[in-house]
Amino acid sequence: MSTTTDHDVLIVGAGPVGLMLATELQLAGVRVLVVERRTKPDTALKAGAFNTASAEAFERRGLLSAMEAVAGRQPLQGERKRAPSVGHFGGIQVPADPVDERDPSLRGRGPDWYVQVPQAEVERILGERAAELGVEVRRGVEARGFDVDEDGVTVHLDGGDDVRGAWLVGCDGGRSAVRRRAGFEFPGTDPRITVRQAVGTIEGAEQLGQGWQHTPTGLYIHGPGPGRIRTVELDGPPADREAPVTAAEMEASLRRVSGADVRVREVTVGTRFTDHARQATSYRRGRVLLCGDAAHVHSPFSGQGLNLGIGDAVNLGWKLAATVQGRAPEGLLDTYTSERHPIGAWVLDWTRAQVAVMRGDAYSRALRDTVTDLLGTRDGATYYVKRISGLWQRYDLGNGHPLVGATMPDLRLDDGTRLSDHTRGGRALLVDLAGDDELSALAKPYADRLELVRGSSNDAGTSGLLIRPDGFVAWASAADASDPAGLEAALTRWLGDAAGGAEEGNASRSFL
Q1: What whole-number distance in Å separates Cα of residue 100 and Cα of residue 386?
Q2: How many CB atoms are located within 10 Å of the residue 90 CB?
Q3: Three-class SS of residue 1?
């Protein structure tokens, strides 16, 4: 048996969430090892897009342009033609025309609220960035178990090797072995439906309606594109979710739901999922943390799973890095759960509500009619867009300026740059828009973890901003005022004591 002890953080799972977390940690100078049981990246039919909040997270790290190229569309800030629908809620199409893009939460980011990039491509791009940064990813290696002690975690890999790190993060999906072995509580609701989706060859497809079709026995979706189908049956979970989706199974389900005389001759890609919805009560147990689907599972209706996981990763990365490096203020790592858990709980309820309007009984049909009317109004459509785009999300970071707790505005500065151009390195950002030397003096002791940007902007509405590494505003001053005392408090709260580290972070390195 061999044992290595040269990693600060061990990540189990090299999907998009594990890779995003790894790049965040690597940017901060943390030594990361990612282990993944699959030998190749996952190409299964999963999420087909990510929302505006994820797009902005990718833009802050310089990743969005590569993803935009896959989508074949103009950059996020460009002018784009409005699509007729902004998405669906339980199969109810939400019209785009009523959306009020002047709503302060939307800040003119439309008209697209999703970037159409398959999850497999997101994973590929994140994998390439991880490799560029020097992240070590071991594929074809399964974590068989782990032991936790006061100073770190020893993970037992198949083949007899052990690896050791100060922290372990489970990014290993909804059936997370890390979550199960660490003993996390995982309450929730049992599945009521089975969804099958496939790309294949269909005979008689001209009999099928396009888009979401409600029927007395469930729903089906035909398209976009030839040969892509999805069925939703309301009779409970499948007998064997792990078995391959065959053409015969897909055909039988489609015929039951649609009533059409169709034949599915071939399935090239097929998956199943249910509305199983559960969430860990805490995302941390000692030196073990959960991220992405390992922390919460739900149906993918409205495409929230990938986005929720990316949000988890960017929230956790800088906090765990600060803890590893012994400079985290007291309690910083615990804010990962307190900030992200409520958003995860909302996503679970958002997907449960969609199942409620999908059912075929008279009560659900009446509810569906009412929700359809509401989503056709300006307030209803705007509410929906704010939710699915992720732009509603904010953290309780204190009273004061309305920007505090929200994601940063991507201001254009007088030198032609945007704020996102200054966030590529993953550090916090202090933006001085008033030439305030007192702010600059407060920033100086944090030069190892904070970038100071000085300039001006016509559309700021503020004279200064402190932006955390995850892009959320931790402090802001009014356009005609200075608040050095507030900035000093925010720097201490989120970046710690500039002169030294925190006890928890120092202890995390003691095994090396």
Answers
A1: 10
A2: 23
A3: coil
